[in-house]
Amino acid sequence: MANKKNILYIILIIVFTITFFILMSICFVGFSYVTTMNAYHSTDGRLEDIALDEKMSGPSRIMDTLFLEKDYEEEFDDYWDFARVRRAYIKGRYADDKTDSIKVIEDYINSTTYDKRKEEAVKYLEEITSTK
Amino acid sequence: MQCPNCSADFPSDQLKCPYCGTVNEHALKLAKELQVYDKEYKASRDEMLNTGESLVLKKITIGLGITFFTIVLIFALFIGFSYYRYNSNSGREISGSRGAKNKALVEQYMKSGDYLRAYAVAAATDPSTEYFNNYPEYKDELLAIYDYGLILWEVENSMNDMDHGDNYRSLTPNQVISYSIFYGAPESDVKAELEAELNMYLKNYYCLTDEEIEDLHYAVTSSDFTLDGEADYEAVSKERMVKRFGK
């Protein structure tokens, strides 16, 4: 009887240990997911993301990223400035009246300190004005 | 003790008289009693050891069970809390001074024509997941801006592909649905402004006529719309775009 009880306890210990490790593995996966999501969706994480995107693909994707990721914080102000330019460019390419678009782009070129974005804006302006 | 047979003296614990060999009944009785006692002692000792071992194992089992359960519970609660905090982050800024600040931002961006940014603020800080219940005064406009943003994104992607010489998309069924949803949104000044821009893309980029744009207003599903009587408006639109842009 005592031996049977001992065997039962040993089985229970083994079951508890295995279950513990399985549950902790699941918890670890959940923890990794939550910390990754928190880091990704944090302002710093998104700033890093958009900066990397700009580095890899150029400034043209800024507007899309801001819209899709809903990066509204003031840390993204400079990016939103360029997003306005990009929107003006897309509109200006095919609009009958390009005046508004040209003004937005010119204002940006005159005020920005970001060289790459300025170069891109200059290209936009050249393209729009050449198809006027 | 004295032997009952030969009266010789010998130690009482000897089983037989060393002189005549007579059995010492007293010693024999004691030896048998000792044997029984020894047996009982061993059985009792084994039982105690087993019981003690059982008790120890029982305590270990219960202890481990409680410890493991507590650790897993703490971890799970922490993850659950972090997950709740992550999910509720989007709704964290709807109350108090932050909520007021965000509402002011939406109003500011709407008035300045920065519609996409107004949408970004509202969508990121609205726990109703983009039904904009937290911004009721701009709800209709924000929904229209969202649809506009999607259409603009598609237009931009198509233009990018065309610029790179890729097989770019013309007017797709998804876009017809997006336009249809946009047109069906409640009227507002913002919607009118955005509609003018989107119609411009239909006309000057996708090469639709004014009548065809008007027809698009009445398309409920993507198959309701045709170009030149063709259901494959994607191909018709593409043909026109190739003719116009030479790409």
Descriptive overview:
The complex is a heterodimer of chains A (132) and B (247). Chain A has 132 residues and is an all-alpha fold. Chain A has six helices and no strands. Chain A has helices spanning 2-41, 43-57, 62-69, 77-94, 99-111, 115-130. The longest helix of chain A is centred in the N-terminal third of the chain and has 40 residues, at 2-41. Chain A is rod-shaped and about 95 Å long. Chain B is mostly helical. Helix content of chain B is 66%, strand content 0%. Chain B is built from eight helices and no strands. Chain B has helices spanning 25-88, 96-112, 115-124, 139-163, 173-183, 189-204, 210-216, 233-245. Chain B is rod-shaped. Chain B starts with 24 loop residues before the first helix and ends with a helix. The model of chain B has no long low-confidence stretch (mean pLDDT 86).
Point out poorly predicted stretches of chain B. none
The shape of chain A, in one word, is: rod-shaped
Order of helices and strands of chain A: HHHHHH
Overall strand count of chain A: 0
Amino-to-carboxy terminus distance of chain A:
98 Å
Distance from N terminus to C terminus of chain B (CA atoms, Å) equals 131 Å
What's the topology here?
The complex is a heterodimer of chains A (132) and B (247).
Chain A: H1 2-41, H2 43-57, H3 62-69, H4 77-94, H5 99-111, H6 115-130
Chain B: H1 25-88, H2 96-112, H3 115-124, H4 139-163, H5 173-183, H6 189-204, H7 210-216, H8 233-245
Helix pairs in contact in B: 2-3, 3-4, 4-5, 4-6
Keywords:
heterodimer, A: 132 residues, B: 247 residues, mainly alpha, 66% helix
Entry summary:
Chain A has helices at residues 2-41, 43-57, 62-69, 77-94, 99-111, 115-130. Chain A is an all-alpha fold and 132 residues long.
